[in-house]
Design goal:
By secondary structure, the protein is α/β, with parallel strands linked by helices. It folds into two domains: 68 residues, no CATH class; 272 residues, P-loop containing nucleotide triphosphate hydrolases (Rossmann fold), CATH 3.40.50. 27% of the residues lie in helices and 20% in strands. It has ten helices and 17 strands. The strands form six sheets. It has a seven-stranded mixed β-sheet. Strand 9 and strand 10 form a beta hairpin. Helix 3 crosses helix 4. The protein starts with 8 loop residues before the first strand and ends in a 5-residue tail after the last strand. The structure holds guanosine-5'-triphosphate, magnesium ion and zinc ion. Zinc ion (ZN) binds next to loops. It comes from Frankia nepalensis. It holds the Pfam family DO-GTPase2. InterPro entries: DO-GTPase2, P-loop_NTPase. This is Double-GTPase 2 domain-containing protein.
Length: 357
């Protein structure tokens, strides 16, 4: 039997934004000695191919940055949906991302009609082992995200819409607050911002006393603006969610109490009315606190939603150097699901009404 010739595909590297043609044949696999080895699918025996593709990578040919690889799944389905987290150092980005990853791993996107699969199982398991399991199972806070010249994505999963059967990788980018703040000096570090599908602005209620708000919000937005419509002044089309994280610290204060105590709507869908009611409450709460400046993204983006979330459900105990009790995220998936809905990635059966205002 003859093998069909490998099919070339155009691929966008999510890490460096380099577009290249992958020959559909050469893949990299991690060898037993810990080094990557290249191999050709067409030279492998037919029966071995699927096995070889599992956990394999494609090497990005961009030589301007350190050698890096993307999971093969990024080239096989719909283009990746890239989510960037924006917020100053200590805002809670890594905790929020890790708790979302934990909830996704627990199959909690199923209620919105999204089934999870692996976009490189081995790398995903590494992320769970390093950050998510310590947080959920041992109450350990993640270390501060390191500053690097070349940021690679933190975690990725493959999602499938249950009814329409669309398959796409969901890629989550975490980055040190410092790099976002001074993005002009570290343009390479925040390169991914120019390719984001949606942004999640992480609002830290511990910092409402800062009269100028979060120093990363403005730079992230202007970086995007230059990438998308240089010199333009209109609202940006990229969907954005504003997540007031650490809301457990505000859980007795109205109107936060209502959203922290209420479980997310028991209806198995994203309800536009509920999302709107919550957005309105967050907006009013921030204004009431004199934290209007944190609402900047609402004016800069065409469609935003606002959320109260808690990555951990409990405060960190500095004496014990652990979270005070078992970590239980609250409503962390809602900002994510909301931007996915705005991007058109939820099946109609799982969203009611309009999302994003
Ligand atoms: N009470 C409470 N504290 C939180 C929550 N999320 C994060 N924290 C606290 O905030 C600290 C910083 O959170 P990180 O997620 O590491 O912050 P970051 O935005 O990633 O910071 P950089 O990596 O330095 O940019 C954690 O160590 C916790 O002490 C939350 O949901 N509730
Ligand atoms: Mg971090
Ligand atoms: Zn690349």
């Amino acid at each position: 039997m003859t093998t069909p010739p490998p099919r070339e595909r155009q691929v966008l590297c999510v890490n460096c934004l380099y577009q290249f043609i992958w020959n559909g044949d050469t893949i990299s696999r991690l060898g037993e000695n810990g080094d990557f080895e290249d191999l050709s699918l067409s030279e492998a025996h037919f029966s071995q191919r699927a096995f070889l593709m599992k956990d394999s990578f494609i090497e990005c040919p961009n030589t301007d940055v350190p050698t890096h690889r993307i999971p093969i799944e990024f080239a096989l389905y719909e283009p990746p949906v890239i989510i960037g987290f924006v917020g100053d150092t200590h805002a809670g980005k890594t905790c929020l991302l890790a708790s979302m990853a934990g909830e996704i791993e627990g199959n909690k996107l199923r209620q919105y009609g999204l089934l999870k699969g692996a976009a490189n199982e081995a790398r995903h398991q590494d992320y769970l082992r390093q950050l998510v399991r310590p947080l959920f199972e041992e109450r350990v806070a993640p270390p501060r995200t390191g500053i690097t010249d070349f940021v690679q994505y933190a975690d990725a999963v493959l999602l499938r819409t249950v009814n329409s059967n669309r398959i796409f990788p969901l890629v989550l980018f975490d980055i040190a607050g410092e790099s976002l703040r001074g993005y002009q000096e570290s343009a390479t570090a925040v390169r991914f911002l120019n390719a984001v599908s949606a942004l999640i602005f992480v609002v830290d209620p511990d910092r409402f006393d800062r009269p100028m708000g979060d120093p990363t919000f403005g730079p992230a937005t202007s970086s995007l603006r230059w990438a998308i419509e240089p010199g333009g002044g209109s609202r940006l089309q990229v969907p954005a969610a504003l997540a007031v994280t650490k809301s457990d610290l505000l859980r007795f204060e109205p109107p936060v109490d209502r959203w922290m105590i209420d479980p997310p709507s028991s209806a198995r869908l994203l309800d536009g009315e509920q999302v709107y009611a919550q957005s309105r409450d967050v907006y009013a709460f921030l204004r009431d606190r004199g934290a209007d400046v944190w609402l900047e993204p609402v004016d800069a983006y065409e469609r935003t939603t606002l959320h109260f979330v808690s990555a951990t459900g409990v405060a960190f105990d500095p004496k014990e150097k652990l979270f005070a009790r078992q970590v239980r995220p609250r409503r962390v998936l809602e900002p994510l699901v909301s931007v996915l809905a705005m991007k058109g990635f939820l099946d109609a059966e799982f969203v009611r009404g309009r999302i994003g205002y």
